[in-house]
Design brief:
Elements (H helix, E strand, L loop, with lengths): L8 H23 L6 H19 L7 H20 L9 H12 L1 H19 L5 H19 L8 H28 L5 H44 L7
Helix pairs in contact: 1-2, 1-6, 2-5, 2-6, 3-4, 3-5, 4-5, 4-6, 4-8, 5-6, 6-7, 7-8
Amino acid sequence: MPGGSALSRRTIWAAALILVVIPATILAGIFLLDDRRYYFISLLIILYTLIPFALVFERRKPQARELITIAVLASIAVAGRAAFFMLPQFKPVTAIVIIAGVSLGAEAGFLVGALAGFVSNFFFGQGPWTPWQMFCFGLIGFLAGLLFGRREKLPSRMVLCVFGGLATLVIYGGIINVGSLMIFSPRFTWEALAAVYMTGFWFDLVHASATVIFLLVLARPMLEKLERIKTKYGLIQDKS
């Protein structure tokens, strides 16, 4: 999937879906569906993430190994979140999503993140927060793919850790806090938003620290293994 300097048509479509259509869908679920159709919104998000892959496969049939690799990474993220259920916020999900984006590309990174958020919440509890978590996990995977997925050399462990820590703290924490306020508060105020940020800061810091630690441990062996798989089988390539 990495390769080439310009963004592919698939990546441009994916960016439009992720940055415009998916947030609009989440907001529509809040304001038009009274936040009671979160399963429907979650499934729509997954459907949107599949559209870029349909663009890849419009000229050829998908290979099972490509889909299996994405499914396995999502499963690892789900299993990792479940394995650390006793440690609030200390989870490897974001680290694995970043690894997926770096190795398999931005679109795969978003899909792994969205699937991991949706499936793991069957264990942790589905609710109106699920679409927000899917979006945040997926967005970080997408950005990781855009920043690092097209480089000839794998990014260093330190670069990934800095990106992972900041992305988890600023992007995931920042968006989830806004989502929490919109879900649980009848009206938006800047004072309420500041209170939510202050309350959630330490949880976000633990989450960011966990991402850094898991990237330190997992990034290099997982990326090297995925690179060997890509070289051997030639996973999704699309430069159109």
